[in-house]
Amino acid sequence: MDKILVHGGASLSGSVKISGSKNSALPILAATLLTKEPCVIHHVPDLSDIHYMLQILSHLGAQVERASGVVTVQAENIRTEAPYEIVRKMRASVCVLGPLLGREKEATVSLPGGCVIGDRPIDLHLKGFEALGAMHRIENGNVKVFAGELKGSSMHLRGKLGPTVLGTDNVMMAAVLAEGVTVIDSAAAEPEVEDLANFLIKMGAKIEGAGTRRIVIEGVKELHGAEHSVIPDRIEAGTFLVAGAIAGKGITLKRVDPAHLSSVTEALSRAGFVLKTDGDTVTISPNGAPKPLELTTEPYPGFPTDMQAQMCALLAKTPGISVITETIFPQRYMHVSEMKRMGADISLNGPMAIIKGVERLSGAPVMASDLRASAALVLAGLHSEGVTEVNRVYHIDRGYELIDEKLNGLGAHIERVKA
Ligand SMILES: CC(=O)N[C@H]1[C@@H](OP(=O)(O)OP(=O)(O)OC[C@H]2O[C@@H](n3ccc(=O)[nH]c3=O)[C@H](O)[C@@H]2O)O[C@H](CO)[C@@H](O)[C@@H]1O
Ligand SMILES: C=C(OP(=O)(O)O)C(=O)O
């Protein structure tokens, strides 16, 4: 297994280009199953999760071509059962359920389990499909959804911990081919949901309100091929902003949508950094000693759970006491015990992390447990003394395109040791 060695203490400057969004690209690629015609998707990041999604599409019978960030998919004749061996590697595989159900009125996908960030049920996805007239059955670890016909209806898709992003995507993808009007209340309003809706609209779907809490979909008979460019990855961008906060003399992110980053830039401004936006760029510069923060993760436009671990890395060395409350995945703190091994003073109280900024962190061998936790450990390594050895780097490769090369381009000293 590859590992990453972060030599702490380098200062970062210059600029970095942000890739297309993983969490937009995955459902958008799944949505290509909704038509027999070719779809062309630009700015698809080169990530292992994307690779798995393309494998699933191929297995389902689609013709898939990929050339430097551009993916063409034609799903002329398709099967409706996604294979366990690929599906088990990536939770986002569940988002083929919606398009397969919409087009073929049935779909079978291996049921995703929980993962280290917490329980990850799909009850809300199934509730939405049921509202459209589908039934489901759990058999041999698979979930099968099926319907005679799909009929539009009104539903609330909110669980105890808020709306569901992939659940909203899934129901929207099934509803575009249902008969009549579907109203999704308490929908997820994340930019990735809006991006998927924009792609579906290009394919001929009739959708209003995506990006708000109420989405209205008027079903159509069929969809056609379309071309689309995936939005910039706001979580990769946020991660680089934190790198700039931790070790930057001033760094600029290129090809971002600053509006999608507002909760992160607002938090970093409160922490004392200077953030400047110009078109599709954001620059972060230091401005004296950073300040501690109180932060709560929330559905968009609130502070994203996918940025929580990275903020822990920054606040671990920020003077004073910071408090983070994780409301989306209350147990998403696997990085904390690893950061403590680097000298951080963080205590957990249920969904709350109390972080006492320390003067010094020191590099250590640490274990990446999930995607954002591993990115956070790399960030922590940037302001630690000595070398931080991040193991199980395959987690990082799920969601960050060339993170080591991009950070080195800004002046970091990071080595990737191939297994
Ligand atoms: C590929 C992708 O886009 N992943 C993102 C997506 O995951 P994903 O879409 O899986 O996350 P959800 O928005 O569904 O989860 C939000 C909360 O709802 C709960 N829940 C979810 C579905 C369900 O049927 N029942 C239920 O109770 C979850 O356990 C969690 O507590 O949104 C998360 C929340 O912003 C992000 O952290 C992930 O990076
Ligand atoms: C948790 C994430 O991804 P997934 O939902 O695919 O696990 C993430 O992107 O931070």
Automatic annotation (TrEMBL):
GO cellular component, one term: cytoplasm
Residue span, Enolpyruvate transferase domain: 7-407
Gene3D superfamilies noted in UniProt: Enolpyruvate transferase domain
Residues noted as binding phosphoenolpyruvate in the record, renumbered to the chain: K22, N23
Residues binding UDP-N-acetyl-alpha-D-glucosamine: R91, R120, P121, I122, D123, L124, D306, I328
GO molecular function: UDP-N-acetylglucosamine 1-carboxyvinyltransferase activity
Top EC class for this record: transferase
EC number: 2.5.1.7
Compartment annotation: Cytoplasm
SUPFAM superfamilies reported for this sequence: EPT/RTPC-like (SSF55205)
Catalytic activity entry: phosphoenolpyruvate + UDP-N-acetyl-alpha-D-glucosamine = UDP-N-acetyl-3-O-(1-carboxyvinyl)-alpha-D-glucosamine + phosphate
Its biological purpose: Cell wall formation. Adds enolpyruvyl to UDP-N-acetylglucosamine.
Family: Belongs to the EPSP synthase family. MurA subfamily.
Protein's name according to its UniProt entry: UDP-N-acetylglucosamine 1-carboxyvinyltransferase
Organism whose genome encodes this protein: Chthoniobacter flavus Ellin428
Gene this protein is translated from: murA
